[in-house]
């Protein structure tokens, strides 16, 4: 819990030590912008995807490139399964134009399954076990695809606006959507049944992150009435637990590995560390502007 990793628009991967104010560059580069990255849960691998139509797997200890796969379109996001055996990549063209999904073995990047996303798909996400792929369209619908069977599992028409964000729980049993109709919804992943629905003022770049034990999730956004106040909900009941506070939109929220602390980053040029047992005030604020 004392390091943060980030990627720059120049294609460089950085390691930050929370105990010092400087970043340590890591020699993990692409020939264009790095759009997404993920770290294996054992800390041995980093996978990156970029606008150079390339997926790269990096050996963290030796800081060298272990394996590379080329793609048809830009790599919009990469997601590792919890057991570190599967990698799901989503390809896209520009912003809000997802085109394709692929599941690879990890770390060897052998293609296991792949499929095209419907025209007008704007957002997509994979469950941590790699079995379900959820994607939202411009007609406000959300479809869940079974990657193992390579067939549609179900379609949801509960939303009254575009789905801005999708996030599965760590155990893959539920997922949360954030919609332009200012609602956050939780669904049973197996059936698509609505668990609960709560008000959330998010209009642009809305996201959700779960605690590692899956007992709570936090929703946050860069633009909207709740842009400065990320909200934590109980995953079982939907009860509001607490709110964080920033002076502007929030772009990232992370839980520490032991779920005792939260880290939030905002457009107010601060990053904050919070003690979940006493969320009244941050225990540390980093000025990053």
UniProtKB/TrEMBL annotation:
Domain annotation Anaphase-promoting complex subunit 4-like WD40: ranges: 127-195
Alphabetized SUPFAM superfamilies for the sequence:
Quinoprotein alcohol dehydrogenase-like
Pfam families the record matches: ANAPC4_WD40 (PF12894), WD40 (PF00400)
Keyword terms of this UniProt record:
Repeat, WD repeat
Q: Keyword check for Cytoplasm, yes or no.
A: no
**UniProt key word Repeat:** yes
Q: Which PANTHER family match?
A: F-BOX AND WD REPEAT DOMAIN CONTAINING 7, WD40 REPEAT PROTEIN
Name this protein carries in UniProt: Anaphase-promoting complex subunit 4-like WD40 domain-containing protein
């Amino acid at each position: 819990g004392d390091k943060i990793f980030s990627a720059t628009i120049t294609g460089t991967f950085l390691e930050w030590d929370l105990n010092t104010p400087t970043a340590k560059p890591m020699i993990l580069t692409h020939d264009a912008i790095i759009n997404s990255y993920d770290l294996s849960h054992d800390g041995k691998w980093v996978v990156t995807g970029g606008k150079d139509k390339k997926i790269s797997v990096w050996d963290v200890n030796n800081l060298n490139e272990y394996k590379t796969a080329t793609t048809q379109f830009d790599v919009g996001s990469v997601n590792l399964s919890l057991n570190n055996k599967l990698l799901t990549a989503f390809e896209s063209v520009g912003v809000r134009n997802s085109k394709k999904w692929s599941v690879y073995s990890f770390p060897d990047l052998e293609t296991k399954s792949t499929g095209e996303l419907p025209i007008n798909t704007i957002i997509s996400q994979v469950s941590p076990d790699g079995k379900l792929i959820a994607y939202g369209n411009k007609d406000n619908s959300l479809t869940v695809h079974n990657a193992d069977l390579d067939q549609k599992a179900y379609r949801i028409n509960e939303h009254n606006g575009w789905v801005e964000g999708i996030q599965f729980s760590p155990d893959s049993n539920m997922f949360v959507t954030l919609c332009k109709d200012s609602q956050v919804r939780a669904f049973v992943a197996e059936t698509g049944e609505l668990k609960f629905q709560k008000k959330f003022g998010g209009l642009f770049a809305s996201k959700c992150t779960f605690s590692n034990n899956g007992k709570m999730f936090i929703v946050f956004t860069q633009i909207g009435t709740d842009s400065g106040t990320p909200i934590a909900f109980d995953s079982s009941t939907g009860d509001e637990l607490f709110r964080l506070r920033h002076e502007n939109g929030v772009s990232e929220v992370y839980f520490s590995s032991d779920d005792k602390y939260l880290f939030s980053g905002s457009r107010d040029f601060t990053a904050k560390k919070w003690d979940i047992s006493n969320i009244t005030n941050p225990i540390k604020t980093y000025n990053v502007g």
